[in-house]
Amino acid sequence: MPLDPDFSPGTVVTGKWKQGKYVILRTLGKGANGIVYLVQREPGGGRYALKMGFNGVDLQSEINVLTSLESRYSQAGHKSASYLKEVDDYRTNGIDIPFYVMKYVRGEPIHHFIQKHGSDWITITGLRLLKKLAELHRLGYIFCDLKPQNVLVTRYGEVELIDYGGVSPVGRSAKQFTEWYDRGYWNAGSRVADPEYDVFSFALLLIHLLEGDELQRLAGEGLPQLRGMGPLTALIQRSERLSPYKGWLAQAVQGKFENAEIAFLHWKKHVYGPVKRQRESRSEPAPRWLIPSFALSALIMAGAIMFLFR
Ligand SMILES: Nc1ncnc2c1ncn2[C@@H]1O[C@H](COP(=O)(O)OP(=O)(O)OP(=O)(O)O)[C@@H](O)[C@H]1O
């Protein structure tokens, strides 16, 4: 029977095998697969996120993916190797509840972040998210359940993926996905876990951020078999808000980027690059001809002040 591990703040979770002690501070979030708490390691440890599963089997498969990712990351000498901290069982009322402890990401879901700080942030957070996906793909895994809730952004604009429950090895079927971001739902391709699958989800996530109402209208319109690339492409072409991303999006939804690395490089050159250059040109140093005129105005101003206080 699935468990419902709902514990109040102050509860001390002690690992059955490794004896690690974690005090629950508050609930960070609850999803279909489990509940995640903000915890403090005792004695005197730092803060972490601790996830307990409603269904032990599902949580175990998530732990397996994370463990395998950790070892691949550390083999590749990557710093993300510290995401998973501990795996254990919590024995309470005669039952064992599996849990794992991970890095606590102090951030907010990308849609809330963009709502609060403005759509200018899309270019840089998008670039960082594509980089994360490309890193994951290089290790042989596809994220599969890319959606705004699974992308946390820190206040410095750093991006972290959370919820590895949907991660699948390349070539397998996506086991966990969310309709709006799913290639199959839009009749745009299969549900086989390949790099283009994540790039497609990224494109839909971007459309959601900027044209959420339109996307909802398309998703709810007509029969499922009529849902497809046509209406999506038409939205990309006509939307004013999507115009800086139009070229990139059109290729992404059609699966034209072979992998996330190519999608990342294309974004860097055609989306991030122009915006960066525009910003730099706005803060360019004053042109040479302006310097003598500025000096002259300063002199006149100084003279005027002296005249005033004479
Ligand atoms: N490492 C973390 N740091 C901070 N908050 C986190 C972390 N992991 C998860 N959370 C929070 O907990 C919530 C639920 O976690 P998670 O998405 O892993 O659960 P889930 O049951 O797999 O969800 P879903 O129903 O989306 O599959 C997240 O939406 C997020 O708010």
UniProtKB/TrEMBL annotation:
It comes from the Bacteria. The chain crosses the membrane at residues 289-309. PROSITE patterns: PROTEIN_KINASE_ATP (PS00107), PROTEIN_KINASE_DOM (PS50011). Pfam families: Pkinase. The keyword Manganese does not apply. GO terms for molecular function: protein serine/threonine kinase activity. Residues 22-310 form the Protein kinase domain. Keywords: ATP-binding, Kinase, Membrane, Nucleotide-binding, Serine/threonine-protein kinase, Transferase, Transmembrane, Transmembrane helix. ATP binds at residue 51. This is Serine/threonine protein kinase.
